[in-house]
Each structure stands twice: as C-alpha cells, then as structure tokens.
Amino acid sequence: MKFFKNQWSNIIFIVLILILIIPQTRKPIQIFVNKVFSFSPSVTDEEDREKLADYNWILENSERERVNFSDSEGEVVIVNYWATWCPPCIAEMPSFQALYEDYKDKVDFYFVSGEEHTTTQKFLNSKDYDIPSYRMLSEDPKPMDGYSLPTTYLIDKDGEIIIRKIGAADWNSQKLRNKLDELITE
C-alpha cells in the first residue's frame, strides 16, 4: 500500500499517456483541447494583406454539380479547408455552423475537403450540420492553399484576404461577426 501512496503522480502520468496513445480516446481529447484553446481569429494588418490572383477555381458540390468560384467575385467569402479525420477541423465546425446559420444569405461559404462526398456528407449529417461542402476540381487561386488543415480565409468584396487562419478558431465570436457586418456593408 505504501508503494501506491508514493507513486500516485507516476500512475496518473502513465494513465494519461495511455489515454493519449489509444486512438479511440485520443481523438475526442484532441477535439476537446482544440475547442478550449480556440479563440477568435485575428484580422491581418492592412499592409500585410494579400489579394487573390483571380477567382478561377472549379469546385464540385455534394450533388456532384460544378460550381465556379468566380460566381463569388465581388462578394464577402469564407473558404475553409477541412477534413473529417482532422481534430482541429472538427473542433471548429460547431462555430462555423452557428455562423453559417446567421450569414448564409450574406456571405458565400466554401468548405473544401479532399475527401469523397459520401464521407463528408455522412459526417455533416451525423452532426446535423448543413454547411456546404465542396471538392476541388481545379487548383485553388493563389495565394490560397489548403495544405495545412484547417486553413480558413475571409475574403472581402475586392478579393483581399482579411483573415488567413491556420488551425482551429472560434468563428462565431462577436469580434468576427462585427468584422463580417463591416465587410458586408462596404
């Protein structure tokens, strides 16, 4: 009994390591940690902002219809690169869903995944999300890229990237909503 009294911290440490190693427990913990540490994304300083080279980008929606990103030229746009297997992506989805519900008629949303539509739709349906998911059929316009997941861009009506965020964030914050309202009225 004396052994256990002296070794509690070591036993707890070993249990925590085991929990993080076992795949069935690791993913929910990663999602939880990402949610806890997700803050509102920061707006890029004006002098550091980049502009889209063009809007030539062909996507495919979940009904397998072609969608041309150029239809969003002159609109406020949010582009999110994500995957169903990505814990930070999953962590920020509830905030995106809440934002989408309030801004879907004012902002063009593109949730872009490299996965099959059946995979993404199964995930979205299981969570009761109705955000629009797309697959790329052509290369994305530069300087955007989705090599790191999640990566999200907020683009103004002039094609200027106002926010470029790699990693999970709280996309339903009042700070971001205020920025969206400002961009929409410009």
TrEMBL record:
Lipid biosynthesis in keyword set: no
Gene3D superfamilies xref list: Glutaredoxin (3.40.30.10)
Superkingdom, natural source: Bacteria
Assigned keywords, A-Z: Isomerase
Protein name: Thiol-disulfide isomerase or thioredoxin
CDD domains, per the entry: TlpA_like_family
Domain Thioredoxin stretches: 28-185
Keyword Isomerase: yes
Entries under PANTHER family matching the protein: THIOL:DISULFIDE INTERCHANGE PROTEIN DSBE (PTHR42852), THIOREDOXIN-LIKE PROTEIN HI_1115 (PTHR42852:SF17)
Species name: Salegentibacter flavus
GO molecular function, one term: isomerase activity
